[in-house]
Amino acid sequence: MTEELQRLGLSGYEAKAYVALVSAGEAVNGYEVAKRSGVPRSTVYETLGKLVGRGAAFEVRAADGTGYVPLPPATLLERMRRDFDRTLGILQNEIPRLTAPPQVRLVHSLTERRMLLERAEDVAAAARSELYVLGWPEDVEALKPTIRRAEEHGVDVATVVFGADDDPVGWHTEHRYSAPSAVEDNLGRRMLIVVADRDQAVIGGLTADRTWGLYTDDPAAVLLAHLYVRHDIAIHRVADRFAEHGFDEFWVDDPALRRLREPVGEPVRAVDGAPRSVGPETDDQGVDIEDLGDDEDGRSRAG
Fold first, then answer.
1. What angle do CA 287, 293, 295 make, to 5 degrees?
2. Start and end of every Transcription regulator TrmB N-terminal domain (predicted)?
């Protein structure tokens, strides 16, 4: 509790002293607060004075000295909520007036699932008009509270989930072409894409023990992520529309589609630390060595 109170603006000593007052259940003096809270006796009265100044505690004078009682927790939390909302309202109105057109676009890496989901949640929370989300059920589930709040605030939400979702949110598409297991085998990872207002995006890949991802507000990268999700939705709409006209057979048997479903390889690090993909061995110019050879008239196929 003391850590959470610090997030809301109390100092460490103030939070400890307030918790001690709440747990006491009666008026206690500074010595007792220091003993219960661990706040040094040399600073406990200064700390209690700050709590009184905040309105989070009150002095109670009695024959045996001065005691302290806390503002009831429910009242304190409601006051903090009002103050926080007021501050947010001011900042939402004033900060945009100071914002200059961006000269530098952000692209930063996310290397842990927690970081990826937290940044994805930030993007979803920032949506004001439209929100596109694509991912596996276990990852989308973690974002659902934020996605639902966006939808409640009038954001147009579209979700593509690779697998069954018993509690879908937004304009929902269950990814069926190809099966989620086949896609994960093909890509070597689960995907997660969150795009807000065509303005910012999180793009990631997850395995059991590794995470690759990035956050960006670069228009080119955001556009690609945005179109990727829309493309998946469009493919499924086409599949549903032409299901009775052999779409399933076309999807399975068409040579070009089979080629596109070939595994893409696993990202690794080159000598210089830059990411690349494992695929057919190439020479220094990127030519597929396995594809080198002579055709019937002796010319190199690579040429």
1. 125
2. 5-73
Q: Max CA-CA distance within the chain?
A: 111
Q: Span 89-93, mean pLDDT?
A: 88
Distance CA(76)–CA(99), nearest Å, equals 34
Helical segments of the chain, H only: 2-7, 12-24, 30-37, 41-54, 73-98, 113-126, 137-152, 180-187, 219-241, 247-253, 255-260
User: Rounded to the nearest 5°, which phi and psi values hold at 63?
Assistant: -65, -30
Q: Could you give the C-alpha distances from 100 to 91, 96, 279, in angstroms and in order?
A: 16, 8, 43
The answer to pTM > 0.70 is no
Say if strands 200-206 and 211-216 run parallel, antiparallel, or are unpaired.
Answer: antiparallel
Nearest to 197 by CA among 137, 154, 242, 231: 154
pLDDT of residue 208: 83
CB 147 within 8 Å of CB 170 = yes
Q: How far apart are CA 228 and CA 233, in angstroms?
A: 9
Distance CA 132, CA 128 (A): 12
Q: Is 64 helix (H, G, I), strand (E, B) or coil?
A: coil
Q: Which residues pair with 48 in a beta bridge?
A: none
pLDDT for position 226: 96
